[in-house]
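Hi F.,

I've been meaning to write this up properly since the lab meeting, where we talked about keeping a consistent format for the predictions we share between groups. The idea is simple: the sequence comes first, exactly as it goes in, then the structure tokens exactly as they come out, then a line or two of notes. No screenshots and no reformatting. I'm using this chain as the first example so we have something concrete to point to.
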Amino acid sequence: MEALVDNGKTKVIGECEPPIVAYFMPRFITAYTSGLSNLNILKTKRILRSARIKPAVNQVELHPYLPQPELLECCNQNGILLVAHQPLGGRPLRIVSPNASRPGPLHNSEILKIASESGRTAAQLILSWAIQRGTAVIPKTSNELRLVQNVDIVALNEKDLETINSLVREAGPIRYLDPSAHVGFDVFDEDKDEPVADSAPWD
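Output, unedited:
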């Protein structure tokens, strides 16, 4: 893929990887990856040291219960767009979510209160919050009405921004997508860069 950029056939390349891409990271980075998915600060910095073409985006779980401000700052400093693939929280398969049964921010009483007072939906407020702090969002819905509502965002005032910013201190951090138990190590550990070998424990 980097060769395609060199030949002028594309300008930005990206590859959405599961967290276990770390097993194959050196091969992926030198070969064709310029987009990241589910990588923390430690692994993002490792990629930045290896990649010839700097990653354009890092797609991660990001919502009021998991705002990841340090990762956002790291990406901003390195010109990487942080993209929220679960901007409303969510309930993925239990095998990758130890918090699958915990209600997401869509059901938070403070967000619902602001929504009621402003005539907006909880989803509109959360998406507005995410965009206002400089992240891109990829909300998922098959409901036509929600599709329309989700693009109707609004600039939040400082009070409402701070209210949503404070939710993580009360309810979180809550990660709804965490395959650590499934793959056998903490893929989001900022102190231990694991794994570094080009192999998986099941090889």
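Notes:
The chain has a mean pLDDT of 81.
The chain is about 35% helix and 5% strand.

If this format works for you, I'll send the rest the same way.

G.
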